[in-house]
Amino acid sequence: MNNEKKQIKKTQRLNSLEKIITAARKIFVNSGFFGASMSQIAKEAKLNQALIYHYFSSKEELWKAVKKDALDKSFNTNIEYDIKTLELKDWLHIIIKNRFNFYKQNPDLRIIVTWEKIQAQKINLYGIDKNFDGIFTKDIKELQNRNIIEDRKSTRLNSSHTDISRMPSSA
């Protein structure tokens, strides 16, 4: 396969993924996880349901991909501050203010997280993906190293402690 055909195939794949994510986000916002079906998402995306399963092995995986996509596109992790000079109170103020602004700018994601909190008792919808290392992990480790916050039992913080989807929403 020549480079041009490879590029066309890559573009088609990205277009299909974008259609799937966009459709799934709309359906999940309107119906929640349990109210949404893969067939509804396929219909909304104007794609074959089998194609969705080609990219996502389950509805749970698609749910997490929708959240990750929204975060990747929207969340301002480039907040300007120097964690090495901040006290905990100041750092928390910056993070909370940023979170409120984030949900104000991304009401769809706030709705998805709310659905998640309501429905997650029946199935684990928390998290984004296995490789997601919480966006504040480095900051928290720095605060631990400076003994501003406790590093319990000398275990280092991992992403399960900083999963932002489990943080209280600003709803």
SSE map:
Elements: H1 3-35, H2 38-45, H3 49-55, H4 59-74, H5 88-105, H6 107-119, H7 137-145
Helix pairs in contact: 1-2, 1-4, 1-6
List keywords for this structure.
171 residues; 7 helices; 61% helix; extended
Would you summarize the structure shown here?
This protein is mostly helical and 171 residues long.
What gap, in angstroms, lies between the N and C termini? 50 Å
Strand content: under 5%
Number of helices: 7
- Whole-number average pLDDT? 79
Radius of gyration, in Å, reads 19 Å
The helical percent reads 55-70%
Q: Strand count, sense and closure of the main sheet?
A: none
Low-confidence segments, given as residue ranges, are: 159-171
Q: Tell me, briefly, the overall form.
A: extended
Strands, total number: 0
Structural class, judged by helices and strands?
Answer: mainly alpha
> Which oligomeric form is depicted?
single chain
Could you please describe the fold and organization of this structure?
With 171 residues, this protein is an all-alpha fold. The protein contains seven helices and no strands. Helix 1 (3-35) packs across helix 4. Residues 159-171 have low confidence and may be disordered.
